Amino acid sequence: MERKHRTKIVVAVIAVVGAIGVAVISNVDKLRSSGKAELTPYNPTNDIEVELRHHVEISGLREAIQTMKKTLENKYRERYKLTDDELACIIDTSFFGNDYIDIVVEAHKKHLTLHEVQELNRLFSSEVMTNYRKKQAVIVQEAMKGMDQLVERKYKTLKKHLQACPAE
């Protein structure tokens, strides 16, 4: 039982590293961007659905989802030598498309008010946030170096510990 728990921890750590990697990849184009960011004009509405769908776009969520899909496709294509048809069977495109966005919007509706979403949209449309999003890839890339070292240390420690445990 203890060994299964440790395996779950290793899998969770790998998943976190993968998520951070996706964040870096999704923002790699911003590494080459020049200084000042273009501001996204924001005109609030009184419709939470419209506000949340706007938030999906300006927060980078849709872009991150598409990047995750491409990253997984490339990873599986290389690792398992899959064709496009085989990939389509493995990676359900609806998960990465509008169906998933609909789920995200509904989840946000349960936990955020219209006013909160409007404030988030104002924030994401501001110059400081727009500039931050452009720098985020570099920040995440630097953090990933430290994360890689941390994961490597944790993995080595866990591997030694698992080897010392009696097999079930």
Structure summary:
The chain contains eight helices and no strands.
Describe this structure in words.
There is one protein chain. The protein is mainly alpha-helical. About 80% of the residues lie in helices and about 0% in strands. The N and C termini lie close together (about 10 Å). The model is unreliable at about 30-35 (pLDDT under 50).
Strand and helix layout:
Layout: H1 2-26, H2 28-31, H3 48-58, H4 61-80, H5 84-90, H6 98-111, H7 114-125, H8 127-164
Helix pairs in contact: 1-4, 1-8, 3-6, 3-7
What keywords describe this structure?
168 residues, mainly alpha, 0% strand, extended
- The residue ranges in which pLDDT falls below 50 over 5 or more consecutive positions are 30-35
Largest sheet: none
Into which percent range does the helicity of residues fall? over 70%
| SSE succession | HHHHHHHH
Specify the overall morphology.
extended
The first-to-last residue Cα distance is 8 Å
- Protein structure class: mainly alpha
Instruction: Provide the gyration radius in Å.
Output: 20 Å
The total count of strands amounts to: 0
Number of helices: 8
Task: Provide the β-strand percentage band.
Answer: under 5%
Number of self-contained structural domains: 2
* Overall pLDDT: 75
